Automatic annotation (TrEMBL):
PANTHER family: DNA METHYLASE (MODIFICATION METHYLASE) (METHYLTRANSFERASE)-RELATED (PTHR33841:SF5), DNA METHYLTRANSFERASE YEEA-RELATED (PTHR33841). Residues 90-225 form the Type II methyltransferase M.TaqI-like domain. SUPFAM superfamilies: S-adenosyl-L-methionine-dependent methyltransferases. It comes from Marinilabilia rubra. This is site-specific DNA-methyltransferase (adenine-specific).
Amino acid sequence: MKTSEVEKELKIGDIFTPLKWGEFAISQFNIFRKWMKGATIFDPTMGHGHLLEALILHGQRKGYAIQELPTQNLYGNELNYSHHKKALSIFRETYKLDMSQNLWNKDLLDLPEQTFDIILGNPPWQNYVDLPDIYKQKIKPLFAKFDLIDNKRNLLLGGSRIDIAALIIQVSIAGFLKEGGDAYFFMPLSLLLNDGAHQPFRTYKIHETSFAPIRVFDFNKEAVFQKVSTRYGLVHFSRNQAPDFPIKYSVFKQNKWEDYLSAPVGTPTAPLSIYKKHQEKKLNSFNKIKLSKDSMPRQGLNTCGANNVFFFNICQKINEDFCMVDGTTKLPTKFVFPLLKSVNFKNQTEKPVAWVLIPHDSKGMPLSEDELNNYPELKSYLENHRQKLTGRKGTLINGWIKKGRWWALLGVGSYNYASYKVVWEAYGRKCFCPIIVSGIWQANQALQAFIPAKNKAEANKILKALKNPAIEEYLLSTRMEGTMNWAQPGKIKKLIEFE
């Protein structure tokens, strides 16, 4: 397929690799020695060609002249025309090399398949949802083709957070790496460490072709790539090899590498847990918590960007039926609930400092138009914010808006009204400290998660199980402390066996 001129103007997830770290990869994996012995090396998304250039620099540092290096075995590809032109210029002006026959200006997805001994690359880092619309339409079918989603609809739901790096890595290995070949990628570590959208990548299969992670270098807080907040590292994959865990996992700390082991815990496609040798037995011998299906971990309710409409800092009782929120608005008390904030976990207090409006019935369904007419104060308040609420973005909330229930929230069900909740902070923490609250309290979006309970005894049973020190140890082993993925419901769900 021909790459369009419009596509060649696109800049997608450009993260260029510094030459210093290109040489680091070359040294760690003996890539230079293999190259000198005749191995062909391909960078599928080369940017300015720094990784290929690092091989030449490495050779010069070892005393080789340019003409002694097998530069004819270096190959690269770059979608963006300007980046491709810059790469050719660097090789021509710095090394007096004409690489125009070896460096191609195409979309990797349009490049005819051919095989190389080694792939050394840094794929673009960008979530599908953030890609230019023209490019989304082109690559959408490929996520299903390469087994990265179950069906195309998933790209409209949670799968929209999948990184294009996952697709580029799989295309590179399947279409451009020889049988038994090795691939080395600088990549976002979310593909290995995060729950959710990247779980299909961790099947480590492309149709019938398997590939295995062999070694991981986690750069941790080292600023290898400027202005990048994503966790990243260097990962070695081998084609036609099944994963064999644990694998060696090194973390850059205080200017040196600290060695760990890593393996999925619970299921083969679980995020990698990172641990020391002495912790391995404890992690692998963890007995899952047995709970009923009604005790499914849940994320807090979601306003879909309308916190200023649904959240309040002041709530004063007027009478049994009504309250005054933020000193200005009268609302039916039955739809206003205390909202958990970090202070409630810090002080373990049930004194509310925030409240949330939930215009849903006791089964969790948004009120119908007829039901809303029974509460004129509530209807008037929502009408005043109609423009804000109908303008919210997202596939799921748009489903409710199209049905005429534009006042809906997400993440609301009968579980929101359970008698008790066992709640924990799911975002940005490094301590797993669940607490029990009464059912009227509501968990706050992705910041918190909870398990509903029918009564106090059941809540105490769940709390006791969750306070098993092995759970916090497992969460710490996933190296998600301080991030949004610290203890989200999906991660806790893996530790539960539903009866």
